[in-house]
Amino acid sequence: MGPHRIRTYLVFLALALLLPLLAVALIAFRMAAIEEAQIENRIVQIAENLTVAVDQELDRALITLETLATSSELRNGDLRGFHDQAVLALKPEKAAIVAVSADEAIRMAGEEVQTSC
Predict the structure, then answer these.
(1) CA 112 to CA 94: how far, in whole Å?
(2) Which element (helix H / strand E) includes 116?
(3) Is 78 left (phi over 0), alpha (psi -120 to 50) or beta?
(4) Model pLDDT for residues 105-116, shown as the tens digit of each residue
(5) Residue 103: its pLDDT value, please?
(6) What pLDDT, on the 0 to 100 scale, is given for residue 75?
(7) Is the pLDDT confidence value at 49 over 80?
């Protein structure tokens, strides 16, 4: 057996050890890329769902406010009556409406009517 023959076997041995490691590394990188894409897709889906939920909440609030804006009590200056309507309209929500006129601000719905100057 000559030195070239042993060297050839050692090269083949080194390749036999390195090729599976390279294959595992490539598979691991590919799996990481797939997982990253899946996480990105989940984040986009969560963001879209959150956008829909916020839009729905804003639509509900807008409808409530538009409905309360047509209140005859508000139009006639009956703030106590408007307060009662606002409390009923906002009962399931944890919200408040603040009515501001030129000379006073009254906190509506959720607390007693308070007048401040």
Answers:
(1) 15
(2) strand 115-116
(3) beta
(4) 454 444 444 444
(5) 56
(6) 86
(7) yes
Instruction: Kindly state the DSSP code that residue 102 receives in the 8-state scheme.
Output: S
Closest to 64 measured CA to CA, from 91, 102, 29: 91
Mean pLDDT of the chain: 82
> Which token pair is 110?
């959720």
d(CA 72, CA 55): 28
Helix (H, G, I), strand (E, B) or coil at 26: helix
Which region holds residue 57: left if phi is over 0, alpha if psi is between -120 and 50, else beta? alpha
Residue 28 tokens, joined:
């691991």
Which two tokens mark 26? 């490539």
Please tell me what DSSP assigns to residue 117: -
* Residue type for position 97: I
- Is 83 within 8 Å of 106 (Cβ atoms)? yes
Q: Which two tokens stand for residue 99?
A: 């009515």
Q: Token pair for residue 92?
A: 């399931």
- Distance, in Å, from the CA atom of 9 to the CA atom of 12, rounded to the nearest integer, reads 5
Q: Is the pLDDT of residue 51 over 90?
A: yes
Q: Tokens for 107?
A: 């906190």
